[in-house]
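Question (not urgent): is this output format expected?
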Amino acid sequence: MRILFIGDIVGSSGRQIVADLLSSIKEEYKIDFVIANGENSAHGKGITQKIYNQLMSYGIDVITLGNHAFAKNEIYKFYRECDDLLIPANMEPLDFGHYYKVYDVKNKEICVINLYGEAFMNRVGDSPYPYMDWVLENVKADYYFVDFHAESTSEKMFFANYYKDRIDALCGTHTHVQTADARLIGNTAYITDAGMCGATDSIIGRDFEELKRFLILNEKTHFKVATGKSFFNAVVITVDDETMKSTAIEAIAR
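Got this back:
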């Protein structure tokens, strides 16, 4: 079995590169299941129902979110209609949405979990550990995959090491720069950050000129997502069909 995890999809450029490449990548790597982080997919902040449907139509099976999950207020209205949209468990508001879901893939059950880091993050409502513990104690699955949306590299590494005998994969998101540490930690497939899908000439997806006016010239500006030529970041995790143990993780940068 092979699982594809796509790093943060940023704006229209990110959505377009996913549309352009996903089908061929699924064929090339013989992908069975696709997870993507879509928290930046709507003009760099949040997600809309239209974009959720668009991304799912490309062949994505489940979309995870992050600190911009509630950037678009309409999520409160359409969320119930999006069965495969996860919200980090331990970010405020704590009582809204689902943070895990179990999927049947090749007659095996894969549990996808969306969690949130505490260090340097806003809207932190609780520690991620009780939520991970609850899933492991109460949700039966053959494979546990975690999207850990966090700023701190050490927090992601500690989490993976702490749960290395209990979870099967942890892919970090949020910082948008793909890290060169894809590896197995015990039996856990791990990468500190899967990277992003978005404009090549950008500051982690944001327009350079707008940021220059804001940071250097002290102008009041509006958040602007960069456009133009894009790149695609993801990881492919190989899983033994019988034991359901991760055997390899490979970073993709196109």
